[in-house]
Every structure is written in structure tokens, then in C-alpha cells.
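ugh ok so i messed up the first submission bc i forgot one of the chains. this is the corrected input, ALL of the components this time, i swear. 571 residues overall. if the numbers dont match what u have on ur side tell me asap before i send this to the collaborators (the ones from the other lab, u know who)
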Amino acid sequence: MVTECKREYGPDEPVIRVSGLCKTFGSQVVLDGLNLEVYPGEIMVIMGGSGCGKSTLLRHLIGSHRPDEGTIELFGKEITQMSERELDEIRKRFGILFQSGALFNSMTVSENVSLPLSEHTGLDAETIDIMVKIKLELVNLRNHADKMPAMLSGGMKKRAGLARAIALDPDILFYDEPSAGLDPVTSAQIDNLIKDLSSKLGVTSVVVTHEMDSAFAIADRMCMLDKGRILMVGPRSDFEKLRDSEPDELAGEDELLMRQFLRGEAEGPLTSKANSASYQDDLLGAGYHEER
Amino acid sequence: MPEKADNRNSIMIPGRLLIDKLAGFFSMLGGMTFLLFETVMVLLKGMVFRSQRVSRSALAFQMVRVGVRAIPIVIMIQVAVGVIMPLQMYPKLNEFGQGEQIATINAIAALRELGPLMTAIILSGFAGASIAAELGTMVTTEEIEALRATALSPVRFLVAPRLAATMIMTVLLSVIADVVMVAAGMATGRNLGVDPGLYMQLSREAVDISGFVSGLVKAGVYGLLIGLVACYMGLSVKPWEGSEGVGRATTLTVVYSIVAVIMAAAVFTVIFYAYGIFS
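and heres the new structure output, hopefully the right one now
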């Protein structure tokens, strides 16, 4: 039955198709009519500053938030209207690495990895044991199988979380800020792992990040988010070109904004909002001018 | 900016605030009812389908964690209550030459009311707070989200064993509490000059098996309430609230579950009295 599902979308069809996604929390618009397609086997990096909606987008993709408007198709199936039970079937086909690893703290590393296997497959304990070892070897953690999560460093937690995410051999892997809070070496190791898993297992990867170094290191295609809409989506080379080019006079605000973000500059359209006029008024009180 | 103004207005208008509070209260009750329903469904499903079973080792682990470490405290508290009750009652009873009746009073109080009630209050603090803190922390570390994303139900994995464990352990600890309070009463009575043999006989006459069972039924419900409040408050922490949210959930769990338990105690006693159940 699983193979049947896999054939439902063609080889060139997108695995993930997001169209017209809208979400508001209270009066704040977080996602504003977002369209995105991710194709099989590619690494798609979603970038954007804090509060741009990229985490919210990710939460929608894994079915933990429901949008106000718009549709999300995973494997050719619309998930936004699905019941939790139907969603669970889809969830077994993707894995996610959370920002902090999100290991189950009461279980050892190997128990964390074996949990999805023992719950969702009919495999016997010995087979599961072998599979757990394979997954842990893939992330280079086989020597730490019996440790509790509290004993692991940040990078190890992420790798263990990754081993759990790939336990069921998913078709899609989601990464939420994979290199946040890691030292440069560990961060580079995680980047390599992401590339490795993508090439070795052929999974489609969606990486949400704001670390430009790692984004450029791993991406096949990239997309830039700001205020809940997509500014630009395209192959990595397009973004590299944009980063390295000098702005001309015709450059729109979006382009300037993206260049600032890609280069990680302090000055630019992203920050100019903060230095706005009413500062003086705010500091000295509204009556300041009148008194003088 | 307009949001701030709205907030200020809602504080200004007491009626509006009251309505907001009431709405919050009923949405909490609704949420708890729904959680209870879901948990019962999970437990029933687990009895029918092997693959859906709630893990026994998880249940055993939770029972130890919820109950076993609370045993010394239950004993300590019940010794104190078992000393207080006869000492307060003895002088008045003795005026009528009925001093030995402290046995009757103590036994009724212990088995029908105070054994289960004191146990439940202790477990509100002991089990309730720790469950709420644990689940709340699991929300903030994204563990709950990770469970869901792995297509595993937090209700089956986390709520069901905890709820079942608090229920079972409240009943079991209540038995201990009953026994300890009667024993403490007997020791006190002996110091007051009541013969232990007579004390035991009067105690047995005071409460029959149905009285004892009524206490345990209550204890089961108290345990359910504690587990339900704790799990609900823990899971309703929002990921971005962090340690503050966990602290609030823990405090509210203790407050709400004690209130719920005592309210339930009153309701039960009134109903049992009015309809003559377990009398």
C-alpha cells in the first residue's frame, strides 16, 4: 500500500505544494498568501529574519497548525482539511528535526530512535535493534546509544533527533533551525549530515534557517520570506548572484532587503524602520515642542 | 497600539472582565471534559486492540512516581489527624460518659471522609504539581510537538498512564491513610484510657464495608480529578511561555485540583446522604 501511495504523484511533480496559504494570529498577519513548491530529492532552504513566518510555515507543513486559507499538498494529498487520523498516516512519511532536538527526556538515545519503529512497524525487537544501530551510525552516535538526552551536548542532541527523524525512512525531512546555537564546527557537521542524508537516502529536505553560511552550503534551491510572503524563490546560484552584486538605482526595496539579509549587514531597509521619526517625541514627551 | 487600549478598556468594565473570566473557566472545563473523553477512548481502545495498548511499564513507572514516594507523607499527616480528632472530641464526649465513642467518630471520619480527602490533597501537591510541571516542560522543549509529528498520540503516551496512575494510587494510598488514622486514634484513645480492644470493636461497628467502599469510590474520583487537572494544565502551557508558563501551570494545578477535590467531596457526601447510598 505504501508503494501505491508513492506512485500517486509523478516523478516531476512537487512533493510539497503550498498555495495561497494565509494565517493570522489575533490581528497579526503571519502568513500572507504564500505559494511554494518543493520537488523530490532537492534541499529547499527557507530563509528569513525573526518573525517572518518561517517557523509558522513549517508548523503548517507538518500539520500542527491549520491555515485560515489556502492549501498544502504533501505527496499529492491535501492535508489542511485532514482529520488527525489521516494526518498521522502522512506524518509517518516525513521526519522532523526540531530546533532543540526535542528528544524524549525520559528515554535513552536508542529508545528515542526505536520508539517510532516499535509503534508504527510490526518489526520484532531484534530487527528494530539493528535498525536503530544503523540510524545512529548514520549520524555518528552509535557510541552514545545508552546515554540519556540530558548527558548530551547540543550538537549530539540534534544528531540524535535526526536519527529519530529518519527512523521510519521518511520521504521528506524537515529541519527547524538545524544550526542554531551550535559552534561553527558542529554546525558544519550538521550541514554535511543534511547533504549526506539527502544524497544517500534520496529524501527531500526542507530546511528553515537564518544562518546564511549553512544555507548557502546546503541549498539546492532557496526561498526568502518576509512578513509572511515570499520575496524570491530560485536556485542557490540566483541568490549567490544577488548577494555578490552591487545594487543599481533601479533596485526595489525587496531586492535591497534581501541583499542586506544575505550579506548580514546591519544597515539597510530591514533595520531602517527602527530608526524612525517619533523617537525624539518619545524620549522627550509629546509636549516638548510646545513648551519651547 | 489599539490592542493595548482594548485591554485597558476591558479592565475598566467589570462586567466585561467577568464575562471573560467565565468564558475562560468554561473553556477550561470543556477542555478537561474533552481530554477525559479522549483518555477514556484511548484506554478502551487499548483493551480491545493489542497494538493500541497503553504501555504497562509506563503505567507502573507513573504509579511509583505518583504514589510510592508520597507514602511517608500520607502516614505522617494521617498520624497527626488521627491524634487531633480524638483529642478534640474526647472532653465533650467524656462529659456524657461516652469517652470511648471517639473510636466511632474517628473511624467514620477516617474511612468515609478524611482518609481519601487528605490523601487527595497530598497528591495534589505531590503528583499533580509534578505531572503539570513535567508535561508543561515537555511542551516548551517541543517534546509534545515531536510526539505528534511522529504520529504518536500524547494522550495515549502521556496522559493515559498518568491519569490511570493517579487514580489507582489515590485509592491505594487512601487505604493506607484509613488504616493509619484509625491506628493513631487507637493509640491516642489508649492514652486517654480507652481500651484498645473496645476501641477496635467500636470502630468496626461504626463503619461497615459499604462505608469503606464509599471512601474508596471517592478516592478514585479525586485521583481522576487530580490527574485530569494536572495533565490539562501541563499540556495547555504554550511553547513560547517557557519557564513562566510551567510555573503558572504548576501553581494553578495545585490550587484547582484541591478546589476540585474538596468540592467533589462535598457533592459526594450530600448525594450519599440524600439518597442513602453506602449508608
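quick check: Chain A touches chain B through 23 residues (CB under 8 Å). that seems consistent at least. Residues 1-8 of chain A have pLDDT under 50 and may be disordered.
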